[in-house]
């Protein structure tokens, strides 16, 4: 998946840190928002894996840190459940203004309760999914049960959650108590998928039953049998993402259109006005994308044409080295080609600032792993300079352009 780092403002004007995951080989068929669990962050491994499963089906996923958590601005102690719901609304607004309005909203644990409260306020949402969500937000009070008396008497307390200290204020408790999720569920009127593990020791499976009973049809339930609350096992989080994507096809058209890029040549590239610099590429039937950075008017959803050029050289180098290692019987377990392209003055042009006096350089560093002798390593270095793309770039080529 292709990751774009971004920020958006919440209701208080604070910057919230986010990641927008895109499919690597196509434009998104739909956009989704993911709300993480209580005191977690957008970088929880389960969130990343769920996003990966969704992008594999063409769904772009926005995951972000709630106010005061992770890389987002603000003080967690000043937040509450209602502010989390507001953060979701601003995330949806950012997607609608800069990309496309979200059609799917997904929440994990207390984030699941938050999406149930927010979904009805986002008109574009066509499908709602919760993972290990509590049926009653005050349920989370059990996490700091031993500190409730102190919170009530002094107005706040520092509690340990997942081994980290968090300051909880009385307003947080009061806000949870005022939340009426059951009533919101009855008026949701959007397709709902509930995923929950019978073995969840943090949020009991009975919560899934309560959500299901209070929700209106269409509603579905999938058992995450054997999973823990945080979906710690990779296979559990990937399964969760794939199930959400499959279920969503009932309510959102996620079918790939018939490929529009057709040619009898080796490669075809298409750029459409509404997509700015973002360009689609079909190379021998394989789809790629190219774009430009935001600072020059692009959307940064893919590498630049120069990135692809350098990557082509790197890929050709790695493949040539692998062929050489096989032929010579060299125990090469892995090769990584680290590359940088930049313009530098040629040795005989150091005294001038004229850009015309600069040459294009690609610095290529080989990282080799395996039971290799020094002779093996030097042989690999020699062959690295003989890959076909390297020869084409060094020897030069002629490009003929004409109108069709």
Q: What do these coordinates show?
A:
The chain has two domains: 2-248, Alpha/Beta hydrolase fold, catalytic domain (Rossmann fold, 3-Layer(aba) Sandwich); 267-395, K homology (KH) domain (GMP Synthetase, Chain A, domain 3, 2-Layer Sandwich). Helix 1 (45-55) packs parallel to helix 8 and helix 2 (81-98) crosses helix 3 (110-118). The chain has eleven helices and 15 strands. A hairpin with a 5-residue loop joins strand 1 (2-9) and strand 2. An eight-stranded mixed β-sheet has the order 1-2-4-3-5-6-9-10, sandwiched between helices. Strands 11-12-13 form a three-stranded antiparallel β-sheet, with no helix packed on it. It is an alpha/beta fold and 404 residues long.
Please give the CATH architecture of the largest domain. Answer: 3-Layer(aba) Sandwich
Query: What does the overall shape look like?
Result: elongated
The H-level CATH homologous superfamily of the largest domain, spelled out, is: Alpha/Beta hydrolase fold, catalytic domain
Task: Assign the CATH class of the largest domain.
Answer: Alpha Beta
Number of strands: 15
Main sheet summary: 8 strands, mixed
Structure annotation, total helices: 11
CATH fold-level name of the largest domain:
Rossmann fold
User: What is the radius of gyration computed over CA atoms, rounded to a whole number of angstroms?
Assistant: 26 Å
| Fraction in beta strands | 25-35%
Strand order of the largest sheet: 1-2-4-3-5-6-9-10
Number of domains: 2
Helix-residue proportion: 25-40%
What are the low-pLDDT stretches, counting only 5+ consecutive residues below 50?
none
Derived from helix and strand composition plus strand pairing, the structural class reads alpha/beta
User: Averaging pLDDT over every residue, what do you get?
Assistant: 88
Distance between the termini: 35 Å
Query: Would you list the SSEs in sequence order as H and E?
Result: EEEHEHEHEHEEHHEHEHEEEHEEHH
């Amino acid at each position: 998946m292709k990751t774009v780092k971004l920020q958006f403002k919440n209701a208080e004007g604070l910057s919230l840190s986010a990641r927008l995951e895109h499919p690597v080989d196509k434009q998104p068929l739909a956009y989704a928002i993911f709300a993480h669990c209580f005191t977690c962050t957008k970088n929880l491994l389960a969130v990343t894996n769920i996003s990966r499963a969704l992008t594999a089906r063409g769904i772009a996923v926005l995951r972000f840190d709630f106010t005061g958590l992770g890389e987002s601005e603000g003080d967690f102690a000043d937040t509450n459940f209602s502010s989390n719901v507001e953060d979701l609304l601003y995330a949806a607004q950012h997607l609608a203004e800069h990309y496309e309005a979200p059609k799917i909203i997904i929440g994990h644990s207390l984030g699941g309760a938050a999406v149930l409260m927010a979904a009805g306020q986002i008109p574009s949402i066509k499908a709602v999914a919760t993972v290990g969500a509590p049926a009653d937000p005050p349920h989370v009070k059990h996490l700091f049960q031993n500190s409730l008396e102190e919170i009530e008497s002094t107005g706040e307390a520092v509690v340990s959650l997942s081994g980290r200290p968090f300051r909880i204020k009385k307003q947080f408790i009061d806000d949870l108590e005022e939340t009426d999720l059951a009533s919101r569920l009855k008026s949701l009127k959007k397709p709902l998928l509930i995923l929950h593990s019978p073995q969840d020791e943090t949020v009991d499976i009975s919560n899934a039953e309560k959500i299901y009973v209070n929700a209106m049809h269409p509603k579905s339930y999938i058992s995450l049998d054997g999973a823990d609350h945080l979906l710690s096992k990779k296979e559990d989080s990937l399964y969760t993402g794939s199930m959400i994507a499959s279920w969503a096809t009932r309510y959102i058209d996620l079918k790939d259109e018939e490929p529009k890029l057709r040619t009898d040549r080796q490669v075809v590239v298409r750029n459409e006005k509404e997509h700015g610099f973002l360009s689609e590429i079909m190379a021998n039937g394989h789809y790629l994308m190219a774009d430009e950075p935001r600072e020059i008017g692009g959307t940064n959803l893919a590498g630049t044409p120069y990135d692809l050029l350098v990557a082509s050289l790197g890929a050709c180098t790695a493949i040539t080295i692998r062929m050489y290692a096989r032929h010579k019987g060299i125990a090469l377990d892995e090769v990584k080609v680290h590359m940088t392209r930049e313009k530098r003055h040629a040795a005989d042009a150091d005294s001038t600032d004229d850009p015309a006096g600069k040459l294009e350089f690609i610095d290529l560093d080989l990282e080799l792993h395996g039971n290799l002798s020094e002779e093996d390593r030097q042989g690999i270095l020699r062959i690295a300079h003989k890959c076909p793309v390297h020869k084409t770039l060094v020897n030069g080529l002629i490009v003929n352009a004409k109108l069709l």
